[in-house]
Amino acid sequence: MKDYESKNGVMMFAGMPVTDIADRFGTPVYVTDEQRLRENYRNLYNAFSQYIDTKIHYACKANTSLAILSVLAQEGSGIDAVSIGEVMTALKAGIPPEDIMYTGVNVSDAEMKAVTDQGVMINVDSVSQLERLAKINKKIPISFRITPEVGSGHSDKVVTGKKGSKFGIPKADVIKTYVRAKKLGFDIKGIHADIGSGGQTVQPFLDAMDVLTDTVNELKELGIDLEFIDMGGGIGVPYKMNEDEMDLNELAAGVTDIILENTDIKKLIIEPGRYIICDSTVLLTRCVDVKDADTKKYIGVDAGFNTLIRPAMYDSYHYVAIGNKFGKAATAKYEVVGPICESGDYLAHDRALPDPSEGDVVVVYNAGAYGFSMSSNYNSRPLCREVLI
Ligand code: LLP
Questions:
Q1: How far apart are alpha carbons 246 and 201 in whole angstroms?
Q2: What is the pLDDT of residues 246-270, one digit of tens each?
Q3: Which residues line ligand 1 (CB under 6 A)?
Q4: pLDDT > 90? residue 107
Q5: What is the pLDDT of residues 298-331, one digit of tens each?
Q6: CB 139 within 8 A of CB 183
């Protein structure tokens, strides 16, 4: 991970001093660098499309802001949606229905009807869902999410592909479910698996691709030809200063090699959320209180787990800096904590930082993925602003 530039002791973000952004828009505020967002999209697209026809379906659960979706629509992105709300937001941002795929879990009939009424393809997650969909809309193209029995992720809470997972068609039922769908008269387009979120190694993606390609070939022998493989999302990003990025070319070359060597599949879909949006965005929060509590020193800020829940929920690490004392030497270790009435409300533990004072602008890095989208009104606090530069 790379650090930001400094000008006159102030951190610069997207060409602006973070103090100016905080003054102008108030805090807490999520700030996104549009150029970085576009670069991330292009890096990923270029890495895969040099080998195979690739479609990116941005997993908009990571951030559904209309401004961000509109930028990605301009780049040619499709959308991975998990709810009718996400489908409607994507349509509003100008993404055509044929570029949206709905991958829900535990989906109600009402939601399936609403999604298919919009002409959006369904990635079916269970046998129950298939049978119910057959009564609602048999004309909509479908694919299946399978459980690859391969899992990866930054926390157990976000591993999705393991054996016994609540997600996908269990491996033992996959073939008969495709055969059943064919018998029901569905237009079956593809196969999908997601292993989990925030993994930092390439191998699990290759292991899952082996499972997908074997299944594609088994289905072909039964006369079921698929158009695409969807490898889901999950590409991790570094959150710590000394961490390296996953080697995208190794990932793309490895995955596409397995597809092209073993199958007739000509199209790959990928569903990155975190990779696209994470490091394009920081959270600015103002120091409102400073406390020396004997065994601990606290920097009290105006963002809590209502604004960014990842540290409290997954013990996720987010790098923090004091934006108006950028580059100044650290004086002690601090807890960065918010206004929520729970002791689990923190943004960062035990961080070496310069002497804090009320009014400082604390910058939380890598806040783009699952930051704003998981924020809440807890303690009756309003959602904060999002700004795109
Ligand atoms: N596709 C499917 C089917 C998924 O379930 C997910 C994420 C993605 C794509 C996108 O994964 P990504 O590329 O962003 O890793 N709230 C958690 C992450 C939950 C991810 C759930 N599924 C966090 O803050 O880390």
A1: 7
A2: 999 999 999 999 999 999 999 999 9
A3: 59, 62, 80, 103, 158, 160, 194, 197-198, 232-235, 271-275, 310, 314, 369-370, 374
A4: yes
A5: 999 999 999 999 999 999 999 999 999 999 999 9
A6: no
Instruction: Give the residue carrying structure tokens 């996400």.
Output: 86
Atom of ligand 1 at shortest range from CA of 236: 15
The whole-angstrom separation of Cα 287 and Cα 302 is 7
Burial 280-304 (b: 16+ CB within 10 A, else e): bbbbbbbbeeeeeeeeebbbbbbbb
Which of 61, 246, 248 is the best mutation target for the ligand 1 pocket, counting ligand atoms within 8 Å of the beta carbon and taking the most? 61
Q: How far is the CA of 322 from the centre of ligand 1 (A)?
A: 29
| Residue 58 and residue 273 in contact, taking contact as beta carbons nearer than 8 Å | yes
pLDDT of residue 1: 87
Strands 53-59 and 281-293, bridge-based pairing: unpaired
Reply yes or no on whether 341 is catalytic.
yes
Q: Do the Cβ atoms of 158 and 131 come closer than 8 Å?
A: no
Q: Which residues contact 327 (CB under 8 A, 6 or more apart)?
A: 6, 9
- What is the Cα–Cα distance from 21 to 12, expressed in whole angstroms? 10
Q: How confident is the model at residue 2 (pLDDT cuts 50, 70, 90)?
A: confident
Centroid of ligand 1 to alpha carbon of 271 (angstroms):
9
Tokens 């609540």, located at residue? 166
What average pLDDT is seen over the chain?
98
The residues facing 291 across adjacent strands are 298
Interatomic CA distance for residues 179 and 196, integer angstroms: 27
